[in-house]
Amino acid sequence: MADDPEQIIEVAAGDTVWRFDREFLESNWTCIWGRGCLGIEPEPAAELALGCCSVGAELDGLDEARMVAASAEAIDPAIFQHYDVARTEGVFSDATRSATRVVDGACVFLNRPGFEGGAGCALHLAALAAGESPLDWKPSVCWQLPLKVDWEMGADDVEVATVQRWSRDAWGPDGETMAWCCTEGDAAYVGDRPVIDSLAEELEAVVGTPVFVELRRRLGR
Fold this sequence. Notes:
The protein has a 4-stranded mixed sheet. The chain is globular, with a radius of gyration of 18 Å. A hairpin with a 2-residue loop joins strand 3 (102-103) and strand 4 (106-107). By secondary structure, it is of the alpha+beta class. It contains 9 helices and 8 strands. It has helices at residues 22-25, 61-73, 83-89, 122-129, 140-144, 173-177, 195-198, 200-207, 209-218; strands at 8-13, 16-21, 102-103, 106-107, 110-111, 120-121, 147-153, 159-165. The protein folds into 2 domains: 5-31 and 146-218, no CATH class; 46-137, no CATH class.
């Protein structure tokens, strides 16, 4: 989050105050997966196109695990490279169902470059094929990146939710070994729209429609 108070937008919503990083929302950051993304491993590897999927996806509770399992069942095998693994071994890393399985160095749902059914997230591809939003098929951590929400209790029992870009520090100890983080530097700041527009669906899903509408108003959208 920017230190300059002028770069922080606050929107009150009942018992929650939402804080936003104006600089990031007005930036032209965009996901460059498959277009130069170096991944999050210790060595840059754009050619592998693993992006941030190399560690699998941590799931937000059993309800999300059930949703992901149901979505996996609905994927056409033709667009799911690791369909056989998912069918025989499951899509979760273990019995806790707290994360997706990693297959050959990345999430079980990640189709690799050259796969005839299409490269990229099989859940994402299946959602589009069904005419639905990928947000309804994918783990929340996947569709929210690079947005991150930090929650803390403020004064008078008011909860403060800070929405900012996912930084290297947010990855914890793993961040120390990453060769590259997409929100750092300028490689990913090549989009043709500001984040407030390009990630509009994701932002609205995170904060709710009333807060999102007010946020856009504050940004002059």
